[in-house]
């Protein structure tokens, strides 16, 4: 049998690690903190290894009376968050070294955010979910404003704080309405009590929860924060925000919205609502990405569009839809991480993130150019890269439910997205980068880039292992 | 389908054909970029291996039982029902051979490239392997995968090595890419719809033969919609009017090797897909849309030929002429009759060889004179007789001179079409007259006329530059004089794949329904 401590090992390990990094940062003199990144990396690798083992061989149960779930779905997302955290840490070594101050706390906060996400994925109850979400969000408030002297970073921090707090309030209002309606915060109980009767109050609660989570995944019309904050935040933080926090919100969306709130008779109307939201998210995200001149803003709009694609899987629902969402969320980590690693490199070496600063990148840094190209094309869904298979799962799941129109919008929009992804590629290959420095890639950054690219290609060519994991995770929900 | 890997005789022949250019590409990746000579030789060796293997496949193919041969099936993504299924029959084998002929020749047509040589050949070999993959795939998913692989290398090759004339190369590259990708978005929706319809009984598959065998699952309404989606997808690929406008701009912007491969084989994926997927899998949809397609095809033939008459740039002439010639292929497909289908595949082969020869010769002219403007050229036959021969052969093949393979295939097409669509056939044949006008006019203005002193410094093509001329010249006349080598093969494909039977039922239904 298992007891709660073995099941919670990854969470406990992360909490301990995060707090001890904080302590180490205080105890060790400022000059001798170079060891913090390797320490974080190796600890994360250990936790990730354990979590992988846990996915295949671990026990599966709800415990603490359904308060916390330990199923393959939750563990799948834990793998995703830990992998994303690991890659962000690996790619941010040089960047963090250049930070003016508070270098020690950076990794600690990153791990705190990861811990929050892991709680979100496992939460079987609304308060636990909310605590996890706030832990993640508050860590991000600090991380986004990390370059406090930089006007844009602190602007982004304040914006994120205000908007994030508002969205949390809306979410919390939705939760309190549900508690008032059902007398419970446990998902299973809510589902059974809500089923069948749609009241104005429960409708309001549902929409509020959708809006609160929609903010986190930057669903149009709750997306306006993301370009500014992506642009202002330190690049590794942007990467983590774009990749992992979005995935965490999708984990909650699946568990809370799809499996719990959808048990109401509301589902037909809800389907229309989601349909409209997904369609405008895909259209707005892709079309506004076209005129962007800053790589982080471009990736922000592209990630809005990607959220729209993921919503297609939510619309489809069922095992095939959920499988599509979590499969795509995983490959999205690697594709986006590759692109953000290059953006981090440019920010670190050239202190800028404009697309024109990538000029002549092919001569200055061939490896980074190839990685960027592969990552962007995977985001665009060009085979044989992983993004194609992911989109195929998502859209075929929707078409299987008869939602041909949304899949069609998705296909056309992803072809249009090729336009702006290719214009980045064009700048890198074609423009002459006269006067711009050589950008060599070394060490952990090189590893991150090559690793993400190899995974992106490998999953594209042979998706079966990851698909099997995703199916197992999706089935564990039912 | 959870079939175990099935092994037929020489099942590894096609994988090796496919992997040879990729192996060469990997070798090149690890070479220093200064070793340009070695890079070119390795690229050529890789393509030679592919060419020899596909020639062997062509000669060793058994016409009598026909059907898919050299098959290899490996379950790839079991939960989707994707199989890595390779194989060729009489329809795809000529296209495979054509790909390798053009691929091999395109290496030599790019022999004088001196800018970023390593990257050029890496991308070129990926491009060739991608095109090859579409023709040997027996699985729709794999087919599509290979098709999309080619789009991005083409984009990068055009923006780096392309040329800016009437439109900038960036514009040309983006236009080409967007057209093909939007087309493939339509195709993807059609493909997923087909896949879901075929998997309705809970046994998903992408295999062409399985999709075709599950006819009962597709309602006529579904077939019409799905076929319409495919028409847009494949139609923009084969540059059918009104989806053709990427083609002349794209070819004009692209470097020679890309124009050769694009006009020579890549385009043919459209025609091949229409036959393999459209008619074969969705015959009811095909017969519903056939009259409309035939009309659009006739417009393609005549309209593009008229525009070609007015062009000043050599590449635009050939670009529009290829739109016009593809119109014949589409008419033949729309005629829904076995003779015309044989002609269609034959025409794709013949046009591929001709277009590749044309583009390689234009590439050499441009390389030497730095102009493609017809008015600036003239009398080149004096200085460059061998190039003039190549240009003449391509021109004669283009207007369908008897003795060239193009004549035989055009003849076959019209033999098939005339009984079914007499008006279209006559209008199409009229198109040949316009073709003759613009081709002869171009040849006269470029090659003949008084000797011009400004071109006296030019050297004729020689050494490696002669390879495209020799290969394509040989194929054009050999297949023109012994057409049975080609058409017999295709005919066996049409018969043995069951296409003939499908066409027979469809055309009967059509006569009953429409007339």
TrEMBL record, chain A:
The chain crosses the membrane at residues 12-28, 35-53, 73-94, 106-123, 129-148, 160-181, 201-225, 237-258, 270-291, 298-319, 325-346, 367-393, 405-422, 443-462. One of its GO terms (biological process) is ATP synthesis coupled electron transport. It is a multi-pass membrane protein. InterPro entries: NADH-Q_OxRdtase_suN/2, ND/Mrp_TM. One of its GO terms (molecular function) is quinone binding. It comes from the Bacteria. One of its GO terms (cellular component) is endomembrane system. It is found in: Cell membrane; Endomembrane system; Membrane. NDH-1 is composed of 14 different subunits. Subunits NuoA, H, J, K, L, M, N constitute the membrane sector of the complex. NDH-1 shuttles electrons from NADH, via FMN and iron-sulfur (Fe-S) centers, to quinones in the respiratory chain. The immediate electron acceptor for the enzyme in this species is believed to be a menaquinone. Couples the redox reaction to proton translocation (for every two electrons transferred, four hydrogen ions are translocated across the cytoplasmic membrane), and thus conserves the redox energy in a proton gradient. This is NADH-quinone oxidoreductase subunit N. The gene is nuoN.
UniProtKB/TrEMBL annotation, chain B:
The lineage of its organism: Bacteria, Bacillati, Bacillota, Clostridia, Eubacteriales. GO terms for molecular function: NADH dehydrogenase (ubiquinone) activity; NADH dehydrogenase activity; ubiquinone binding. It is found in: Endomembrane system; Membrane. GO terms for cellular component: endomembrane system; membrane. The chain crosses the membrane at residues 12-31, 43-63, 83-108, 120-137, 143-164, 176-198, 225-244, 265-283, 289-310, 317-336, 348-366, 387-405, 425-448, 469-490. Its main location: membrane. This is NADH-quinone oxidoreductase subunit M. One of its GO terms (biological process) is electron transport coupled proton transport. It comes from Desulfosporosinus hippei DSM 8344. It comes from the Bacteria.
């Amino acid at each position: 049998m298992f007891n709660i401590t073995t099941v919670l090992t990854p969470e406990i390990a992360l909490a301990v690690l995060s707090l001890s990094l904080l302590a180490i940062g205080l105890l060790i003199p400022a000059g001798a903190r170079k060891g913090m990144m390797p320490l974080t990396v190796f600890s994360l690798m250990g936790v990730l290894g354990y979590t992988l083992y846990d996915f295949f061989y671990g026990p599966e149960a709800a415990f603490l009376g359904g308060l916390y779930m330990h199923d393959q779905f939750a563990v799948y997302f834990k793998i995703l968050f830990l992998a994303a955290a690991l890659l962000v840490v690996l790619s941010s070594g040089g960047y963090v070294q250049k930070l003016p101050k508070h270098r020690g706390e950076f990794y600690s906060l990153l791990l705190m955010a990861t811990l929050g996400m892991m709680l979100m994925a496992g939460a079987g109850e609304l308060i636990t979910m909310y605590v996890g979400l706030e832990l993640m969000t508050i860590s991000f408030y600090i991380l986004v404003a990390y370059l406090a002297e930089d006007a844009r970073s602190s602007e982004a921090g304040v914006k994120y704080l205000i908007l994030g707090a508002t969205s949390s309030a809306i979410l919390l209002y939705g939760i309190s309405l549900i508690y008032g309606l059902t007398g419970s915060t446990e998902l299973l109980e809510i589902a059974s009590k809500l089923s069948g009767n749609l009241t104005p109050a429960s409708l309001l609660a549902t929409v509020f929860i959708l809006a609160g989570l929609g903010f986190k995944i930057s669903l149009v019309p709750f997306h306006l924060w993301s370009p500014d904050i992506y642009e202002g935040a330190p690049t590794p933080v942007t990467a983590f925000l774009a990749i992992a926090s979005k995935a965490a919100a999708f984990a909650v969306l699946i568990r809370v919205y799809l499996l719990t709130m959808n048990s109401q008779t509301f589902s037909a109307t809800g389907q229309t609502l989601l349909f409209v939201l997904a369609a405008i998210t895909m259209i707005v995200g892709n079309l506004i990405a076209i005129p962007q001149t800053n790589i982080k803003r471009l990736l922000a709009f592209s990630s809005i569009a990607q959220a729209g694609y993921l919503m297609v899987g939510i619309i489809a629902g069922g095992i095939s839809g959920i499988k599509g969402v979590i499969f795509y969320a995983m490959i999205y980590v690697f594709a986006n991480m590759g692109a953000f690693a290059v953006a981090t490199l440019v920010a670190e070496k050239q202190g800028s993130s404009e697309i024109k600063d990538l000029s002549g990148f092919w001569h200055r840094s061939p490896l980074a150019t190839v990685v960027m190209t592969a990552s962007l094309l995977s985001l665009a869904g060009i085979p044989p890269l992983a993004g194609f298979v992911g989109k195929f799962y998502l859209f075929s799941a929707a078409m299987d439910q008869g939602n041909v129109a949304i899949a069609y919008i998705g296909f056309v929009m992803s072809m249009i997205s090729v336009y702006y992804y290719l214009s980045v590629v064009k700048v890198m290959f074609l423009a002459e980068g006269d006067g711009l420095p050589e950008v060599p890639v070394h060490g952990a950054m090189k590893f991150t880039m090559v690793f993400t690219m190899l995974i992106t290609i490998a999953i594209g060519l042979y998706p079966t292992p990851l698909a099997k994991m995703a199916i197992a995770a999706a089935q564990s929900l039912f | 389908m959870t079939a175990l890997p099935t092994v037929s005789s020489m099942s590894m022949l096609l994988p090796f054909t496919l992997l040879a250019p990729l192996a060469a590409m990997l070798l090149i990746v690890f070479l220093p970029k200064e070793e340009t000579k070695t890079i070119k030789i390795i690229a050529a060796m890789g393509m030679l291996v592919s060419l020899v293997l596909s020639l062997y496949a062509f000669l060793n193919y058994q016409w009598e039982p026909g059907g898919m041969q050299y098959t290899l099936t490996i379950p790839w993504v079991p939960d989707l029902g994707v199989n890595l299924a390779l194989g060729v029959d009489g329809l795809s084998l000529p296209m495979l051979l054509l790909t390798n002929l053009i691929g091999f020749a395109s290496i030599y047509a790019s022999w004088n490239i001196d800018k970023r040589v390593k990257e050029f050949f890496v991308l070129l070999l990926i491009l060739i392997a991608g095109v090859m993959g579409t023709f040997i795939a027996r699985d729709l998913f794999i087919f599509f995968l290979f098709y999309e692989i080619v789009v991005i290398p083409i984009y990068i090759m055009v923006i780096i090595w392309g040329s800016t004339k009437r439109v900038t190369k960036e514009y040309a590259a983006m236009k080409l890419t967007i057209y093909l990708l939007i087309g493939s978005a339509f195709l993807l929706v059609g493909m997923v719809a087909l896949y879901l319809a075929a998997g309705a009984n809970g046994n998903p598959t992408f295999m062409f033969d399985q999709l075709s065998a599950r006819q009962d699952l597709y309602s006529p309404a579904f077939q019409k919609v799905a076929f319409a989606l495919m028409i847009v997808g494949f139609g923009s690929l084969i540059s059918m009017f009104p989806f053709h406008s990427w083609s002349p701009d794209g070819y004009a912007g692209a470097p020679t090797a890309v124009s050769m491969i694009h006009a020579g084989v890549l385009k043919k994926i459209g025609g091949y897909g229409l036959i393999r997927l459209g008619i074969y899998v969705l015959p009811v949809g095909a017969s519903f849309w056939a009259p409309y397609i035939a009309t659009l095809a006739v417009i393609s033939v005549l309209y593009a030929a008229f525009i070609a008459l007015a062009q000043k740039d050599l590449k635009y002439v050939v670009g529009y002429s290829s739109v016009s010639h593809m119109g014949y292929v589409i008419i033949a497909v729309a005629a829904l009759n076995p003779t015309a289908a044989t002609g269609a595949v034959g025409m794709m082969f013949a046009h591929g060889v001709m277009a590749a020869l044309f583009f390689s010769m234009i590439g050499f002219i441009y390389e030497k004179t730095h102009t493609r403007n017809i008015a600036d050229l003239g009398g080149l036959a004096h200085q460059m007789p061998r190039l003039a021969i190549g240009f003449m052969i391509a021109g004669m093949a283009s207007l369908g001179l008897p003795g060239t393979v193009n004549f035989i295939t055009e003849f076959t097409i019209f033999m098939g079409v005339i009984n079914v669509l007499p008006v279209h056939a006559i209008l199409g044949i009229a198109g040949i007259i316009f073709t003759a006008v613009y081709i002869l006019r171009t040849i006269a203005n470029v090659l003949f006329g008084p000797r011009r002193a400004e071109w006296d410094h030019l050297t004729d093509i020689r050494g490696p530059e002669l390879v495209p001329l020799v290969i394509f010249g040989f194929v054009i006349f050999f297949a023109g004089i012994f057409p049975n080598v080609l058409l017999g093969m295709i005919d066996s494909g049409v018969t043995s794949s069951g296409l003939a039977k499908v066409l027979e039922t469809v055309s009967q239904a059509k006569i009953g329904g429409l007339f």
